[in-house]
Amino acid sequence: MRLLKLILALTLSVVWVLLLHHPIGKLPALGRLLHPGSGFWQQAESLAKQIQIPVLPQSALTATVKIDLDERLVPHIIAQNDADLYFAQGYLHAYYRLWQMDMQTRAAGGRISEVAGAQALAFDREQRRKGMVWAAETALAEMESDPRTLLALNAYTKGVNAYIHSLSFKDYPLEYKLMGFAPEPWTNLKCALLLKYMADDLTGKVDDIALSYLRTALTATEMAILFPEAIENSEPVIPITATYERSSMPVPPVPPGELWAKFPNLPGPKTTARLTTKAASGLGSNNWVIGPERTADGSTLLCNDPHLGLNLPAIWYELQLQAPGINCYGVSIPGAPGIVIGFNDSISWGFTNNYRDVKDYYEIVSAADSLGYLLDGEQLPFHYRFETIGIKGATAFTDTVKYTVHGPLIYDQRFPEPTGSGKCLAMTWMAHKSSNELLALYLINRATDYTTFVTGIQRFTCPAQNFAYADRSGNIAMWGQGRFINKWKEQGRYVMRGDISATLWGDTIPMQENPKIHNPREHYLASANQQVTGADYPYWYNGDFTEFRSWAIHHFLKNDSLPQTVQTMMALQNNNYSVLAAHLAPLLDTLQITAASGKQYQNIFGNWNYFYEADAQEPLLFQLFWSTLKQAMWQPKLGQIPGGLLPADEISMQLLVDKDEARFAQLTGQNKMALLQKSLKIAVDSLEAMSQDGTTNLQWYQYKNTSLTHLARLPAFSYDHLETGGWGNTINAMKGTHGPSWRMIVDMNKERLRAFVVYPGGQSGNPGSRYYNNFSEHWVKGKYYAVHFYPVKTSAK
User: Fold this and answer.
1) Per-residue pLDDT reduced to its tens digit, 94-135
2) Which of 165, 203, 244, 251 is least enclosed, having the fewest CB within 10 Å?
3) What residue spans of 560-660 are helical by DSSP H?
4) Alpha carbons 602 and 592: distance in angstroms, whole number
5) pLDDT 10s digits, 400-412
6) Are 237 and 531 in contact (CB under 8 A)?
7) How many CA atoms lie within 13 A of 791 on its CB side?
8) Cβ–Cβ under 8 Å, residues 572 and 290
């Protein structure tokens, strides 16, 4: 019996060991994960370890490198040359953010299936079919052809790999242990992929397909009113007071003949999904600059808060880079060398996304033998790229992607177009073109004045950005910068025929003719993803612009006669005033709430100041009303059109406040006052039900649920229901999963340079570190940290 028990115990032990050391379904190998000496316990860092300055391998350096960590774990890297500077940056990025770098470049290159399994295959296929890897390879060739960016890339990659090679399993970031895979060597291509990932995030989503359906279903007049090229009363990025130099090339004439792919005027597929608003309200950024004529101390002020996904680990990594020729502070992207947004001894700069359209779709007509495609009656051969996608726990999948003169064939019979059109569509995208945005950042980081800054940004091709500029000499400027095609009117707004050369992209507009202004007479400039120029700009373009935040910024800056200070800029970045609510809420106080249970909400907006404050109830009721109203307003007319696209919120608002009732009825098929009354009743009923249910707090922040979500969607490493105000139509564009990813205010005083910053999350990517999310309380409360900016030490004579 004892022998039997011994054999049974040994058998169970062997089984247990085998179970713990091999993955089970989606579970990792728990033996290594739970190991007391090397498992997840290692992530619970002691405070001493958390504030310990990373030690660079001296054998990899050519000279002494000093790294200081301040109390927020922000490194100040002081090197004697560029090679050591970027080696140190790469090492620190990997030390604090390795798993994040790995996953984001895998996502960019369509390699998530390798670590997440078949559930990610569709995503990976789309990334490959977009030409993401092809685009990164093209960009890398350009980067490595310039000795400055080649040096930066090689040094950075060397630094990342020096850290990776120092790791054993116990040192791996926790997510590697949970997901059951290991870090792989870093390459220069991964840096290029990360930059293309930025371009995809900021320029990859266009409405060409949905607009093609609408163009078929609506009259030309309806299209012009509901989906105009420019929203009425726009406050453009480049003020209408700007003057443009004489254009060097004429706008090409519209070619004769039929130019557009034919999309059927058929009901869309049955779906319960809600319609979507055209403008990506709240997705974008704000920046503005104030000239010395309007500031309290006669300095220039630059403010920037880019709105991106609210993820953990944080999108940005804050640091200072100092070496001969560079002394720069700001935020970098883990995975690429240099500083993206920031300031140096002389200048400061910030970005907002420039939503000019730089991606177009073409319908491809295959030849009879399917071995090629037609262009002007001639058969051209497809060029093939074989994309092999590894799949965790399954056989690898090989996708054959066909390339044309228009770019990769993203949709075909094997990967259908999502609306069900059945069309084969190729994609022409500016991010596919050869470029070197890394050189732009290299030069901007070292710029000393407006001229050298302009030299740097002219290397910036895609994603197009509105660059705000301020310097310590009292100058301010704004550029709508990127590489743009000189298009004929409406070229690329809809899906074009791919079988005629008349629709091909033409010449590039010279970058010196991009929209810009230097030291305007208004003494301030602001951008918030709105229309870039007024109607007098000589070249035609289209895009997906939003105006609410721009209107709000200009409302306060135009009407504020007080000298501006750092404190007023902080208040403005955190401003929750809604132009939409200010226009529509007064209409609602004239309506009668008929339900007895809703009488308590009668005239609820009467004393509202139209600010979406975190603990207020008015924004909750208003947003319930607005969401209901938009659907009711457009569902009868647009609900069955494939693509599910609504007019921009700004257009809907303007139609509602317009006193022309007949025009409203003609465009929507409905009675305005009846629609308002019905929508308000539904909103009040919904609020009352929420109140009685008792499970939902009626404070605005609880309902909108601004969250910081771990990249792997792990709830234990995420934070939700943050007590924030704002919404997509306020300057503080704080939504559920998107918001201000970095707030920066720089006071470019001649005597003393000051900067104040904050971002959600923290410097460390380790959930077991106190520095993983330690900035978020300040960020939620609208507070800032004063920057420690190290000046360059001068040698004694």
Assistant:
1) 999 999 999 999 999 999 999 999 999 999 999 999 999 999
2) 165
3) 566-573, 579-588, 618-638, 649-657
4) 7
5) 999 999 999 999 9
6) yes
7) 8
8) no
